[in-house]
UniProtKB/TrEMBL annotation:
<dbReference type="Pfam" id="PF26438">
    <property type="entry name" value="DUF8108_N"/>
</dbReference>
<dbReference type="Pfam" id="PF09851">
    <property type="entry name" value="SHOCT"/>
</dbReference>
<protein>
    <recommendedName>
        <fullName>SHOCT domain-containing protein</fullName>
    </recommendedName>
</protein>
<dbReference type="InterPro" id="IPR058962">
    <property type="entry name" value="DUF8108_N"/>
</dbReference>
<feature type="domain" description="DUF8108">
    <location>
        <begin position="101"/>
        <end position="174"/>
    </location>
</feature>
<feature type="domain" description="SHOCT">
    <location>
        <begin position="196"/>
        <end position="221"/>
    </location>
</feature>
<dbReference type="InterPro" id="IPR018649">
    <property type="entry name" value="SHOCT"/>
</dbReference>
Length: 224
């Protein structure tokens, strides 16, 4: 909309459809920067309040994001086929827009403010898995010591850092009808098996030697 007077084009992306006739023909008009801005429907002439038709920043952003996701999906489908394209597009759209329940959406928004991130939104949009990575130990200093060793062998710090980031990851499940439940990965009874997998991954990636792997594996087995 011109600052010094004039009108915008009908059906701009920043406006909702007309609440009176349902057509996407809303436009704004003003005589100047100090004049009141009018919001009118080019189809039926309805004069609307700003709050009725002016979209919020979030609305505009989310609509544009959805359009971009659809474009990406169409391009992927041409290249890799429909089935794989749908899988990739779904993974890209695992965000707050996919949540159908308003109370659940609010819970997720509150968690995001606290630093949690969305990992997965169920197909129905009624269950959300969120995660966060916290500092600290891996199920206690003793268990961390098993993996990093009393002597670092020159790679212990790298191994610990990698394991620490993964093992201090905590998940919660938010549901529309049941609030939330914790799925903390810091639970030692479950973590021991997972730590064994992580140890093998470090070995496979060359972050620890064969001897270190065998020694730490045996230590972990003894603890289990």
């Amino acid at each position: 909309m011109p600052i010094f007077g004039g009108s915008s084009d009908p059906g701009s992306d920043v406006f909702r459809v007309c609440p009176e006739c349902g057509e996407d023909e809303i436009f704004s008009r003003t005589e100047g920067i100090l004049s009141k801005t009018e919001y009118l429907c080019n189809h039926c002439g309805y004069e609307a309040e700003k709050s009725e038709v002016r979209k919020s920043f979030d609305e505009v952003y989310n609509e544009n994001k959805k359009k971009n996701d659809e474009i990406i999906g169409e391009k992927l489908e041409k290249v890799v086929g429909k089935e794989f394209s749908e899988q990739v597009t779904k993974s890209l759209s695992n965000d707050i827009d996919d949540i159908s329940d308003p109370e659940l959406k609010q819970q997720v928004e509150d968690r995001k403010v606290e630093g949690w991130e969305i990992e997965e939104v169920s197909d129905s949009g009624e269950k959300v898995i969120m995660s966060t990575t916290k500092g600290g130990t891996i199920g206690g200093h003793a268990l961390a010591g098993i993996l990093t060793g009393l002597s670092t062998f020159g790679v212990g710090n790298v191994a610990y850092d990698k394991l620490s980031k993964k093992k201090n990851k905590e998940r919660i499940v938010l549901r529309a009808d049941a609030g939330e439940s914790s799925e903390s990965q810091n639970d030692v009874s479950k973590g021991s098996v997972e730590l064994m997998r992580e140890l093998k991954q470090l070995h496979d990636e060359g972050l620890i030697t064969d001897d270190e792997f065998e020694e730490k594996k045996q230590n972990l087995l003894d603890e289990m």
